[in-house]
Each structure stands twice: as C-alpha cells, then as structure tokens.
Design goal:
Structural class: alpha/beta
Helix content: 40-55%
Low-confidence stretches: 261-266
Strand content: 15-25%
Number of domains: 1
Largest sheet: 7 strands, parallel
Order of helices and strands: EHEHEHEHEHEHHHE
Number of strands: 7
CATH architecture: 3-Layer(aba) Sandwich
Strand order of the largest sheet: 3-2-1-4-5-6-7
Distance between the termini: 40 Å
Length: about 270
C-alpha cells in the first residue's frame, strides 16, 4: 500500500513509533526514523533492515526548528520526495488529578510541546509537499480530544489543539494536493506507557483498564497494531479522499459512557 513512498517518523524509538515504523516499512515505504535518543531509533531501523525493509536512523529533536528543517532537507536530498510525515513526540503529560490541584507548569506543558513540535515538523513537511503536489501529514491524539474527560489535566486541551491545527493545516494545503489527517486513539494497553503503569501499580491498573474497556462501545481498547494499520491506510492512496478530519480508532471510547465523571476518578 505504501510502495515507493518515503515516510518520516519522529519519536520512532518508542513503542508506538516503532510499531508504526515497522508497519509502514512492511507496506513498502522507505522509513526515515528520528528521535532524541539515537540508540533506540537505530535499533528499530536495524530490525526493519534485517527483515528486508528500508530504514534510516537519525538523531533529531522535534522541538528544535533548525534541526528539523535541516533533517527534512537532508531526507529530500537523499530520497527526492517525502510522502508521509508522522510526529509521535511524547507530550510529558501529568494527569489523574483535579485541575484545581495542578500547577500551571504541568497543565500547559503538553499543549506547549504539542503545538510547538507539530508546527515545526508539520510545516516543514508541508513546504516540501506543496512543491511536490502531494503528501500526507499524520498526527495522533486520544479520547479527551473529543469529549469532556475529567482528570486528564493538560492532555485534553493539548489533544483539542492538535486536532484544530490538523484541520487548519489541511484547509490551507489541500489545494496543493496535501492531505492532513489526525488519528484519535483510546489508549493502547500494549504500549510502554501502559505497561510501565501496570508494572508499577498492578492492582490499580487492572481496575483502570477494565473501566476503560467498559467505557468503549466494543468493550476493548485499540492495540498499537490497530493504530498502525489505521495509519498505513490513511497514508495510502486508498485514503485519497480523506483530509481535514480526525479518524476515530478508539473502539468507540469517544462516544462512550465516560466513567471518569464519578467522584473516584481512577
């Protein structure tokens, strides 16, 4: 589905980033993987290469405008085109407590990181894609981007801001053949962030995950592979008519029962 396409993935060394990178490569794309930790990104690139895919690793801070612009220019020089750009940078979220108990710094940090990083990476990709007359820019948010979700702190407005930015970028660049699409997840229980939480708080997380599953229409949560498959489809020509929207891959959580409205929260 992605044969002869070049894809840039930021924060590709993480559990979800690496899953998406491998899915893109398996679908035929040449993947250019970056992150602040070169070792973790190189490991993913080596695994893809060992399985017959095409992968390149680089150390890039997605919050550094010059570094990103230089990196995008290098990829264009090497590959000729950029068909896909996907930023999966961590937003350093602090949540699971009431807004009235939060510090200002913890509240605004996710939105600051999301908007700064996505402006830098998405605009850099858009400039190249506008000249090409084609390209797909993807982003990822979660359930709080669609409904009021208590105890999600600064993550909720960060998700909403990212979805708004994605729509606006799509509106400005559609005439150049550039598509911009956001994916909304419900949280993947097999991702590192959940695995770490389960390891640290097994009893509590068993209850949390069960409630999250019950809060969805399908009574389950999307796995990382589900998000990766959605991304492959949206990046492919099969999704050529899809832009300017958020595609919900949350197993129906966004329109679910919202269990967090209870006093006990988590």
């Amino acid at each position: 589905m992605l044969q002869n396409k070049n894809a840039i993935i930021y924060a590709a060394g993480g559990s979800l980033g690496s899953t998406i990178a491998k899915a893109f490569a398996a679908a035929g794309a040449a993947v250019f993987l970056s992150g602040r930790n070169l070792a973790s990104v190189q490991k993913v690139a080596d695994e893809i290469s060992a399985s017959g895919g095409k992968a390149h690793a680089a150390q890039v801070d997605a919050m550094d405008e010059k570094a990103v612009n230089d990196y995008v220019s290098q990829v264009v020089q090497q590959a000729g085109t950029i068909a896909i750009s996907f930023n999966l940078i961590d937003l350093q979220v602090v949540q699971n407590l009431p807004l009235v108990d939060m510090s200002l710094a913890d509240f605004v940090r996710p939105a600051n990181i999301a908007l700064q990083s996505h402006f830098i990476t998405d605009v850099a990709a858009a400039r190249v894609m506008m000249k090409q007359g084609s390209g797909v820019i993807l982003s990822l948010t979660a359930t709080p981007g669609g409904i009021g979700y208590p105890f999600t702190a600064g993550f909720a407005p960060a998700c909403a801001a990212m979805e708004s930015f994605s729509r606006n970028l799509a509106g400005e660049n559609g005439k150049y053949g550039v598509r911009v699409v956001n994916i909304r997840s419900g949280g993947s229980p097999d991702s590192k962030v959940f695995a770490d939480a389960v390891a640290a708080h097994p009893d509590m997380m068993k209850v949390v995950l069960k409630r999250m599953e019950n809060d969805s229409m399908l009574k389950k949560l999307p796995l990382m592979a589900d998000i990766a498959n959605t991304a492959v489809f949206l990046a492919s020509d099969m999704a050529a008519a899809i832009t300017g929207v958020t595609v919900d891959a949350s197993c129906g959580t966004t329109a679910g029962l919202n269990y967090r409205s209870t006093d006990e929260g988590f």
